[in-house]
Amino acid sequence: MSQKVEYLKPDFYYHIYNRGNAKCNIFYTEANYLYFKSKYFKYVSPIVDTYAYCLMPNHFHFLVKIKPEKEIFELLKNENKLVPKEVSFIEFKKLGIEALNKILSKQFSNFFNGYSQAINIQESRTGSLFQKPYRKKEIDSDEYLKKVILYIHSNPVEHGFVGKINEWPHTSYASIISNSDPLIKGKEVINLFGDIDNFQKTHYNKNLINLVEDF
Question: What is the pTM of this model?
Fold first, then answer.
């Protein structure tokens, strides 16, 4: 029996995550975290809005919203020629969700492959760095959206790397509070929780954190 294909849909939220193949590390140095984010910014940010993230030694989490179809079409058509210039948006829409997902998949593939190649060279290793395929879960309510944000930011605490959420440097928690990272939709996240005070208080409510399944 063939497995159902899960498509990424424009204007929908997704929890996207993966870990190292055989649970191996995917980050070895501080520079690796920065390089990973630079690859994400280059290939994935053009097609998504990012609401939260956490990078851990052997896995990562992103909470994203796929951008509107026309915005993706125009951006990729102009920047990397995945869409031929002679194809109109109306013609592109007629191709359907499968055609759009080929483009989205290509962006994610470039992201993962580009980072993997660099780490394989750095660590003198071969083979796949990440488990395949990467995981994606559609988020269908504001309540679930908030739970995923809490889960993502609390990940370093739950795995025992730090005692408090704000102590792990590789999450979006601090940048959301300061609204300092153009990669993150900080204002939108704060609005989801009401205000900054409630955003912080909710993150330290242990009864609300263990709400999304881990690997």
Answer: 0.89
Tokens of 134: 């990467």
CATH number of 13-208: 3.30.70.1290
DSSP characters over 85-154? TT--HHHHHHH-HHHHHHHHHHHHHHHHHHHHHHHHHHTT--S-SB-SSPEEEEE-SHHHHHHHHHHHHH
Is 72 strand, coil or helix?
A: helix
Reference 61, options 164, 152, 167, 195; nearest CA is 152
- Encoded tokens for 11: 């204007």
Q: pLDDT per residue over 50-76, tens digit each? A: 999 999 999 999 999 999 988 888 876
Q: Do 131 and 21 touch, CB atoms closer than 8 A?
A: yes
How far is residue 4's CA from residue 12's CA, in Å, rounded to a whole number? 19
